Amino acid sequence: MKKFYSTLIAFSATILLASAQCTIDPSAQTTPGANPSKENLPCIERTVTYNQTIQGKIQETGDTTITVAGFTVVANIRVDSVRIDSITGLPTNINWAKSPNILLGGDNGCMNFSGTTTDTAGTYDLTAWGTVWFRITANPPVVGPIDTPYTYQGSLNRFSPFGDYYVVVTEKGAPCVKPTGIRDFSAELNAAIAVYPNPNNGNFVFTLNTGNRVTGNLNVVDMNGKVVYTKPLDVAGFYSNQIDLSGLAKGLYAVQLRTTEGVASKNILID
To answer: Between the CA atoms of 57, 58, 63 and 64, what dihedral angle is there, to the nearest 10 degrees?
Structure first.
């Protein structure tokens, strides 16, 4: 679901930011994606009122490869709709609003950020939480035709070709300088990581299987964007780590691997 997932939340990250009501302008974004992108999004100046609308369009269909009964086949994914329920990581007093509430596949929408913050200048990584309803169809050579609806709930960032969306807060009157380095979601890195069992009771195994050297941080983040576990990594080849978070409250968490090559993320449910 690489390319498809990549473009699916082009709009979700689009819809990642906003706060006063917004008006949809389909002409502002005619292809799947967000406008402005995170690189071109105006910075938020401390103590200065901010009001910025982001226009977006979500991709309706896309092809990906899946493995069925040991065979790799091309599958088509059709998005029915996407709903963002919450956004974590925004500076204090910066609010968001969206239109429409549920975005249909292939349609346009908008999101607005507004408010005034006194938070420290810096980069604020955002996480959108919500639901995607979609359908997968394929024709494997052994198993019969597949035509299955799916419902995905959790962090929506990994669906976006823009990667993890962020906003930048600057001092009043200071130039708007965006962060350097790679912050985008990496489909290749994401395919190399696994988390099991899932759901779990807080005890689970994280694995990374890649021939390349990977340097970065392994984080577990709760629904409020708080990092509840972190571990630096500098590994090559196969890596496995048993993580014990049995003391945490039940709920949905994101296991994130952040490296100079990009970001990978898997959702886990502690129950």
So the answer is: 120
